[in-house]
Write a structure and sequence with these properties.
Elements (H helix, E strand, L loop, with lengths): L9 E7 L15 E7 L2 E10 L26 E9 L2 E8 L14 H9 E13 L6 E10 L11 E10 L8 E3 L3 E5 L6 H13 L13 E3 L3 H16 L6 E3 L10 E5 L14 H6 L9 H6 L1 E6 L5 E6 H4 E7 L2 E6 L2 E5 L1 H13 L16 H8 L5 E3 L5 E2 L6 E2 L4 E3 L3 E7 L3 H20 L1 H8 L21 E7 L10 H16 L3 E7 L3
Parallel strand pairs: 23-24, 24-25
Antiparallel strand pairs: 1-5, 1-10, 2-3, 3-4, 4-5, 6-7, 6-8, 8-9, 9-10, 11-18, 12-16, 13-14, 14-15, 16-17, 17-18, 19-22, 20-21, 22-23
Helix pairs in contact: 1-2, 7-11, 9-10, 9-11
Length: about 525
């Protein structure tokens, strides 16, 4: 005798349409429209788009065989059901239905807010995050069992939470919820139950309960609305046209080998003026009419790195990707970094800025760098200063002779570990700060590493008793940044976040910490 089947489980993908979006602006044109009635009453609007039958791409794998698969066809169907509940419009999509919705019409935090409010914080199954300034920024972490959010190893200052999957406290909301811009839920749902379910989800999205267990979620949010991004770009355009450059600058957006770079230019023409570094004013001066600069031109114009060997263009980047700016708009704080806009919570921003301001600045007595001098050449020259020794490229292969680690770039008799880097985009500087933490942690915690470091140090600089713990507050970690700017050293916000985290770790290990600016002569 067969067992009776339970109710049919359905997975719903639910979007909340942003306020202010008109009904006729939600769905792309050319979708078939069907008015839905249920129990004699108007229920909603269903939009359908059926694709053209086509051969699946895997069919070609069997080419050359006698197997006839010519009759095998695939077809893609897109559907979006628009339903109102509590005076708000929702879109429930099926198949490829997300493609039917116009860009920028959805509330891009709805699903995440519902999930964070509705799930048991001890019953998280997976998180999807972006680690700001990481070489591999996007990752998904899945747990083998339901776990507390703290067990996922998130850095609450640097990780931007994009999606969460967990078990809701009330299982009538679904067996499991996944929240991003959309909300995905699975349960025995019927069409007639939909309005009541949507009202419950809307109520969950309005709660602030999530701040009890996830207070850091609102620190940084990526701006996804095309309309808002356009408004922010417009502000950048106006400030550039008016010559208001406070809180704005250009920086190379990725790590480069400065030894291979002769200069930078804002045109690939051989006759273009060349510069030792990139600067916003120099870029605007290179334009025929900088007062009429537009965002479109900034996205079209490029920064060119000229090879020191061939005198040809070695690398190039859109100026828009090199632009860093912080602006206020409608009472909120935004910044652009690497071509992406972010909304930054003002309390979080103030905390990070305060930490950066309070960080000890080293005396400005480090030797100045030369024009177009790379870090390696600078370190060699600076190491000739009395009391300094060169540690750049003197790799300590520890443990097991496998992992090459630099203790620092310059080491002094006063037990100062100096890490040197050219000013660049936030990912480059954040990498510098992380490197300093790695080597300093090993130096503080591992006698074997201290002995290996001694083998690379001259006798005048060696650690006297490498088997003993380092005395607290006797060693100093200095981050030194080469900058041609005449202004006090300022770095991108995300680099300040990473620096604040790095100095907190280093102080916990017993180090003093400093920030230094190396001028360019």
């Amino acid at each position: 005798m067969s067992m009776p089947r339970g109710p049919v489980q359905r997975t719903l993908t639910i979007y909340l349409i942003a306020q202010g979006v008109k009904d006729d602006a939600v769905v792309r044109p050319k979708a078939d429209h069907h008015s839905i009635t249920l129990e004699g009453k108007a229920f909603g609007d269903l939009y359908l788009k059926v694709g053209t039958p086509h051969q699946p791409p895997w069919i070609t794998f069997f080419a050359g065989t006698a197997l006839d698969l010519s009759g095998v066809r695939g077809i893609s169907t897109s559907a979006a059901l628009l339903v109102r509940a509590s005076k708000r419009l929702f879109a429930i999509t099926f198949g490829f239905g997300r493609q039917l919705l116009q860009p920028g019409v959805v509330d891009d935090r709805f699903g995440l807010r519902v999930t964070l409010n509705a799930v048991d914080h001890q019953q998280i199954r997976s998180v999807d995050r972006i680690t700001l300034d990481s070489p591999a920024p996007h990752s998904q972490i899945q747990a083998s069992r339901a776990a507390n959010i703290g067990e996922f190893g998130l850095n609450i200052d640097q990780d931007l939470l994009r999606a969460v999957t967990g078990n809701p406290r009330d299982n009538t909301l679904g067996k499991r919820l996944t929240g991003k811009d959309a909300l995905r839920t699975t349960g025995p749902f019927l069409l007639r139950d939909l309005p009541a379910l949507l009202r419950r989800f809307l109520a969950e999205s309005k709660k602030t309960d999530y701040r009890d267990h996830f207070p850091w979620v609102d620190n940084i949010q990526e701006v996804k609305s095309p309309t808002l991004r356009d408004e922010l770009d417009e502000q950048i355009q106006q400030r550039l046209q008016q010559g208001q450059f406070d809180g704005m600058w250009l920086a190379i957006p990725e790590r480069i080998d400065w030894q291979t770079i002769e200069a930078f230019a804002y045109s690939p023409a051989p006759s273009a003026e060349r510069h030792a570094d990139i600067h916003l004013r120099a870029f605007l001066d290179a334009l025929r009419d900088p007062t009429n600069i537009t965002i479109e031109r900034i996205k079209q114009k490029r920064v060119y790195a000229i090879s020191s060997e061939t005198d040809n263009v070695l690398e190039e980047w859109p100026v828009y990707q090199c632009l860093y700016a912080e602006i206020q708009h409608n009472g909120a704080q935004y910044l652009i970094n690497g071509g992406t806009w972010y909304n930054v919570d003002t309390t979080f921003r103030d905390r990070i800025e305060t930490t950066f301001t309070r960080l000890t600045r080293r005396k400005p007595d480090l030797p100045p760098a030369k024009q177009n001098e790379d870090e390696e050449d600078y370190n060699k020259r600076a190491a000739k200063t009395d009391g300094f020794t060169l540690m750049d490229q003197r790799f300590i292969r520890y443990p097991d002779n496998r992992t090459p680690i630099e203790l620092c770039d310059l080491y002094t008799k006063d037990k100062e570990l100096i890490h040197v880097k050219h000013y660049a985009g936030s990912s480059t500087l954040s990498h510098l700060f992380a490197q300093g933490v790695t080597s300093s942690t090993l130096l503080a915690q591992d006698p074997g590493f201290r002995s290996a470091a001694n083998a690379k140090l001259p006798k005048t600089h060696q650690i006297k008793k490498p088997g003993d713990p380092l005395p607290p507050r006797t060693y100093t970690v200095t981050y030194a940044i080469i900058s041609a700017s005449n202004n006090p050293l300022n770095i991108p916000f995300f680099s300040k976040v990473t620096l604040g985290h790095a100095t907190k770790v280093l102080k916990g290990l017993g180090y003093n910490t400093q920030l230094a600016k190396i001028a360019v002569a």
